[in-house]
Design a protein that fits this description.
639 residues; alpha+beta; 5-stranded antiparallel β-sheet; 9 helices
Length: 639
């Protein structure tokens, strides 16, 4: 089976499965909805049966009232007859009755009369029939009627039944098959449901959600609920009393076990039917596809496979394709195959001629549609090749002539390059001599810079010594001034001593003979003072001369210091110039070294150029030889 056939069958089967699954699912949902709707309707019917049963009971109680009222219980002595009639008329012990006068005094009452909220006034105002909640008896149905005699109300009769009785709901369950419950408020008063302990589920409560819907909002609830471990389809309907107030609820529910069994049976039946239909449909689809799709596709695939393998010869298959789209496709494919075979033969013919060098051959087949571009391409190729071959021939001749000229020029270049290499070697030697001289000059400049630096250091030292000498002369002058002050003091002392000696001589003269010795001493002191004054005068003169000489030396030393400053400045400039000359010499030596290296490289390049020129000359000779060969080969083409 072909891949396409498998895909088609797969698509058909998938569509079939999807369709069957969809129909199956819809059917199951519809069946579930139908079952749910049917069960809801049955529950509604059961609730209606409950209400109808209660209505029948009310009418039966009213009939009992009419029967007993006919006994005229207002007369004494009728109680025993009324009790007999009551025993005959009642159905269960849950029924009760009472007759009273207008004051509420009972003159007939059954033993099980349970009511505590009975009000005579309700009966006197016309009475009532229906559901009533009593605080003692809970939920009941009651018939309350006034008793009339001769158009006058003489009392009130009330007949009722406790709805907690189970017999009447059991009867409804037997008739409908559903579970029945009567709620008083949200509590089960009477029910056919059995709890987990196996007893009637009396006293249990409905869920809060259902209570809110039914009791609080007075609406009917329909749906599904799980009651005492079993799923049920349920209906809750609010129960009004005689005043229209919601006092309880009617309940009907069907266990979903049987319906689930029916639903599962229906689902299984539907699935089996779907599987059978799917198998039959698959068999029919496969048979149909095999004859109408798969086999033609196989034959078409053979044709396409031959074309894919490069086989465009006529097909040997005897299969007859149907008159459909696939048959038309295969016939067009065969026609295309035949045309391609013709095109291939013609292309082979043209290319074979071009392979032998004949570019004058022309296509013999009329190329149609997009294949016309092949014909145009052949024409373009032939035109281009003719022009290209002509250009190549001309180029070969030009290359031959050019290579000969290049060979001659390369030979000349090689000779010139050799001469240039010799000149560069001589230049390199000269540069080497210059480099040596410059290197020597740089060394001398460096040595001169060193000596200049030492000279500058000596001058700086001498400048410092002269400054020290000036300071010493200043100190000598200062000390001389101090000595001069001392000499002046000595001169003053000599003067005072002389005056004292004179005074002593005068006093000695006055003393006469007694003062002669003292006069002699005074004369000696005066002589000594005169000599001291004279010596002080001489010392002062010498010191003044020394100070003048020191001043002259100071002036000369200061002049020498100024001169040394100028010499130091000139020495610094000389040292800077020598340093600059040394640096320039070093840079010049380095530059000459770089020039030397460059010349060596140029020499190397020139040598390489010389070798290359020789090789180029040889290559040009070879190129000229090859150009001649190419020219002879091109002459073989027919253009």
């Amino acid at each position: 089976m072909s891949r396409l056939g498998k895909k088609l069958i797969g698509c058909f089967l998938i569509c079939l499965v999807i369709a069957i699954a969809t129909v199956n699912t819809i059917a199951m949902f519809m069946s579930a909805n139908i079952i749910r709707t049917i069960m809801a309707e049955q529950n509604v019917s059961s609730v209606n049966d409950i209400k109808a049963e209660l209505t029948d009971e009310v009418f039966r109680l009213r009939t009992i009232f009419q029967t007993m009222d006919s006994l005229d219980l207002t007369l004494e002595g009728k109680e025993s007859d009324a009790m007999k009639v009551w025993e005959l008329q009642k159905n269960t012990d849950s029924e009760f009755a009472a007759f009273c006068d207008t004051t509420g005094k009972m003159y007939f009452k059954t033993e099980n009369f349970p009511l505590s909220d009975f009000n005579v006034a309700d009966g006197l105002s016309g009475g009532y029939m229906g559901a009533v909640v009593d605080s003692a008896a809970d939920l009941t149905i009651q018939v309350c009627k006034p008793i009339e005699r001769n158009g006058k109300t003489v009392g009130v009769a009330i007949i009722g039944m406790l709805l907690s009785e189970s017999a009447w709901i059991d009867k409804i369950k037997e008739n409908t098959g559903s579970e029945i419950t009567i709620f008083t408020g949200d509590t089960r008063l009477a029910t056919t449901l059995i709890d987990d302990s196996g007893n009637r589920a009396v006293g249990t409560q409905m869920s809060n959600a259902i209570k809110k819907t039914v009791i609080d909002n007075g609406q009917v609830y329909k749906g599904e609920a799980k009651l005492f471990g079993k799923n049920h389809y349920v209906t809750y309907e609010p129960m009004p009393d005689i005043h229209g107030k919601i006092v309880g609820a009617y309940f009907s529910g069907y266990a979903s076990a049987e319906t689930d069994t029916m639903k599962y049976t229906l689902i299984i039946t539907t699935i089996i039917s779907a599987v059978v239909i799917a198998v039959l449909a698959s068999f029919l689809i496969i048979s149909f596809n095999r004859n109408t799709i798969i086999k033609p596709i196989k034959e078409a695939n053979k044709v396409a496979e031959n074309m894919a393998n490069g086989n465009f010869k006529p097909s040997e298959s005897t299969y007859k394709f149907a008159n459909d789209e696939l048959g038309d496709f295969v016939r067009k494919l065969e026609s295309t195959k035949s045309e391609l075979n013709n095109y291939i033969g013609d292309i082979n013919f043209v290319l074979s001629g071009m392979a032998t060098g004949d570019f004058t051959v022309r296509p013999k087949v009329a190329y149609l549609g997009d294949f016309a571009e092949i014909r145009d391409s052949f024409s373009t190729i032939q035109t281009s090749l003719r022009s290209m071959i002509g250009n190549i021939g001309q180029s070969a001749r030009d290359v031959k002539n050019g290579s000969e000229q290049i060979a001659e020029g390369a030979q000349v270049l090689a000779e010139g390059t050799t001469e240039q290499a010799a000149a560069i070697e001589q230049l390199s030697a000269s540069i080497q001599d210059i480099a040596d001289k410059v290197q020597q000059s740089a060394g001398n400049a460096a040595e001169a810079s060193k000596i200049s630096t030492q000279t500058s250091d000596k001058i700086i030292y001498q400048d410092k010594e002269i400054k020290n000498m000036l300071a010493a002369m200043d100190e000598i002058k200062e000390k001389s001034d101090q000595i001069q002050n001392i000499i002046k003091a000595i001169d003053d002392i000599a003067f005072q001593t002389n005056i004292l000696a004179l005074n002593a001589a005068i006093e000695a003269a006055r003393a006469g003979a007694a003062g002669k010795g003292f006069a002699v001493v005074a004369d000696e002191v005066r002589n000594l003072a005169a000599k001291s004054a004279e010596s002080a005068q001489q010392t002062g003169d010498l010191i003044n001369a020394t100070i003048q000489a020191v001043d002259k030396g100071t002036v000369i030393a200061q002049s020498t210091a100024e001169t040394m400053k100028e010499v130091t400045s000139l020495s610094d400039k000389t040292n800077q110039y020598i340093t600059d000359i040394s640096s320039a010499s070093e840079e010049q030596a380095e530059s000459i070294t770089q020039v030397k290296i460059g010349i060596e490289r140029i020499s190397t390049v020139v040598q390489q150029n010389s070798a290359t020129a020789e090789q180029t000359a040889a290559s040009c000779e070879e190129l000229s030889s090859q150009s001649a060969t190419l020219e002879s080969q091109i002459e073989k083409f027919v253009v």
